[in-house]
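Q: Given only this backbone (458 positions), what sequence would you predict?
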């Protein structure tokens, strides 16, 4: 019997999974959530006889822990976390905790944009190849719950910077860093370098026998590699051959991660996922698959047939000659940049939500080139109005005849209605908000689903 006392802070997917794994390992477990626990997770905890509380923390119980596993949504400067650290009680993530109890190979993906697409691609490639693989992290099921109930030989794990913050001994066999652009700066004291440091924790504890796959043309990644010199074997990818092991050449995507294996080549027009950003995602996924000895034929077939992920440049419907695209996953400015880069028709763009310290100037040029109308959707649109007003967009309610205009709304219903009025035959309406969803929605999935419902009702 393990006499260790574990407290789990947050009873969502990761917290509930960590509690069940801790109990399976004979620990004394207590789960505490500052908000209401979803009924499904309550039922799971009750079925396993695990004590829990909701709508507040009993500090006396929490501060008696030998170790705390916290939800990635709880910031390190939260008062209770500060108290735990002052008492010297270790605070770790669910991924860190679960990895102690499995010998599986870990394929880990992070980046400001493209994580879910790349993670899903790799998972499908491994599954298609017949490997025993689990999907975890930001998507899939709790890693801890999978380790507790039916461990796999491989895990493909999407990791946010919040999850990486509380990982210390964890080691990724294959680490993928897609890109780094400003995001979540409100969580990182508005210091970009703090966010960069969090992303590079994915290389922590790697050795030369491990792989670090990264986009070689990202200036932030390039600078940090030169500074910290990761110990892992490097596998760069980019738009040209140069030193890259995956690149584009003569209208083909080429992947040559293993010298002893014939390079993979596939015409760019055959890729199921189009756009520059998706070519890069496809390169990263294909390198990982080759390193895991998956045959080129299997990789090529997935690249041709992959259906994409919900809420990422997802076609919804065409109404009166206007295409509606759901890109609710675009919760930062750089992700919106990639969405706009993929637009081939005049565009009405929906922006707005909870601003995370955004610098919208990154998308200025593409907005001017592609968008005749902007629709702002949030409780507070003042920053958007000021920025794009200075760029030459007039308030459409004041100057309806302006060549470039914006409409400021405070609900998705009003935003979609404004788009329907402003869009012309042959246009695209693009929901790519640049912002977090928490001012008006439960999460970005809720935002995307509501958008699809409203569009289909037009």
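A: Predicted residues:
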């Amino acid at each position: 019997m393990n006499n260790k006392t574990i407290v789990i802070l947050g009873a969502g997917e990761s917290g509930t999974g960590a509690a069940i794994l801790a109990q399976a390992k004979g620990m004394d477990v207590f789960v505490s959530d500052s908000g209401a626990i979803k009924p499904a997770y309550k039922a799971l905890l009750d079925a396993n006889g695990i004590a829990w509380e909701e709508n507040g923390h009993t500090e006396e119980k929490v501060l008696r822990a030998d170790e705390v596993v916290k939800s990635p949504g709880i910031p390190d400067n939260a008062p209770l976390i500060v108290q735990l650290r002052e008492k010297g009680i270790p605070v770790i993530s669910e991924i860190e905790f679960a990895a102690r109890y499995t010998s599986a190979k870990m394929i880990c993906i992070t980046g400001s944009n493209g994580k879910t697409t790349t993670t899903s691609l790799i998972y499908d490639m491994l599954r298609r190849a017949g490997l025993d693989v689990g999907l975890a992290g930001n998507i899939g099921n709790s890693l801890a719950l999978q380790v507790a109930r039916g461990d796999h030989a491989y895990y493909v794990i999407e990791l946010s910077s919040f999850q990486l913050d509380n990982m210390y001994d964890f080691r990724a066999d294959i680490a993928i860093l897609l890109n780094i652009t400003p995001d979540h700066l409100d969580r990182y004291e508005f210091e970009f370098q703090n966010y960069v440091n969090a992303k590079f924790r994915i290389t922590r504890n790697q050795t030369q026998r491990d792989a670090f796959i990264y986009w070689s043309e990202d200036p932030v990644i390039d600078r940090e590699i030169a500074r910290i010199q990761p110990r892992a074997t490097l596998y760069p990818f980019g738009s040209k051959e140069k030193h890259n092991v995956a690149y584009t050449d003569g209208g083909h995507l080429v992947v040559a991660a293993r010298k002893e294996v014939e390079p993979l080549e596939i015409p760019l027009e055959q890729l199921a996922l189009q756009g520059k950003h998706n070519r890069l995602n496809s390169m990263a996924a294909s390198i990982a698959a080759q390193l895991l000895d998956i045959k080129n034929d299997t990789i090529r077939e997935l690249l041709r047939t992959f259906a994409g992920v919900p809420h990422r440049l997802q076609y919804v419907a065409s109404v009166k000659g206007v295409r509606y695209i759901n890109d609710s996953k675009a919760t930062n400015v750089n992700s919106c940049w990639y969405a706009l880069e993929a637009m081939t028709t005049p565009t009405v763009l929906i922006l707005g939500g909870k601003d995370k310290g955004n610098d919208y100037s990154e998308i200025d040029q593409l907005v001017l080139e592609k968008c005749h109308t902007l629709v702002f959707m949030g409780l507070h649109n003042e920053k958007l109005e000021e920025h794009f007003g200075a760029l030459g967009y007039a308030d459409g309610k004041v100057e309806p005849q302006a060549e470039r205009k914006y409409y400021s709304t405070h609900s998705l219903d009003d935003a979609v209605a404004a788009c329907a009025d402003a869009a012309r035959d042959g246009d695209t309406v693009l929901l790519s908000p640049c912002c977090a969803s928490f001012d008006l929605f439960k999460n970005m999935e809720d935002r995307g689903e509501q958008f699809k419902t409203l569009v289909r009702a037009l």
